[in-house]
Description:
The chain is built from six helices and nine strands, in the order E-H-H-E-H-E-E-E-H-H-E-E-H-E-E. It is α+β, with helices and mostly antiparallel strands. It has a single domain, classed as CATH 2.40.50.120. The strands form two sheets. Strands 1, 2, 3, 4, 5, 6 and 7 form a seven-stranded mixed beta sheet that branches. The protein has a two-stranded antiparallel ribbon with strand order 8-9. Helix 3 crosses helix 6 (184-198). The longest helix is centred in the N-terminal third of the chain and has 19 residues, at 20-38. It is globular and about 55 Å long. Residues 12-38 and 211-223 have low confidence and may be disordered.
Amino acid sequence: MTLGLATVYRMTVMPSALGVPAFRSAAALTLAAACVLGCGAAAAPTLRVSGPLTEEHAHAFENGADFIDNPSLLEGSWLRTWQEDLDRRVSLADAVAFVTVSTLRHDVDLEQRETYRVIAHVDDALHGTPPEEISLVVRQSEEGFSSVEGNEQRILDHRFVVFIKWAQERGQIVPRWHLSPLSDGVARRVRSLVQRTHAPEDQRQRVIIRDSGGAGSADDDTDDEP
């Protein structure tokens, strides 16, 4: 019985045929994984909901993406809106991380309702303790769906900043999220904002974020490399 349709976009390398050497390699990997699981692998981080999901949270973490990789090209109200949205996401987020998208899955159920699942590997956690791999889901009825639909090639195998707000849905803790391109300008501003907003008081550095002369520029001592 067919339960629906699924299209999976994944960056991977597959052998042309599963010969004996490949089989042995796969078996070895399976045994190694079993050993890790049985010998005390590091526990996954405990996810906690910090509070009820407000209207402000729902708008900031709309389960979607933007593709503004060069904010210095923005001017006037466009620039102010981008800055305010980024600042809000950093301040409200339970987790902020640099990630690489490895898989993008598109599902259609029997009632023709569409869902995208973006699988991302965490390269660098700037705030909070996200798991090493995050599944980011957006449904057709949600605000961010249109930003993912049709943009598979702009998302798959690209690096982003992910902003996460943990929420309780259907008895499970799930991420409400937003993705922004991991360009130098975006990474610089995000690092500065995280340092200013979430670092312990005794570890905070003097951070100056210039709102004129190009978004994302900052004077601080943090590492600007994404």
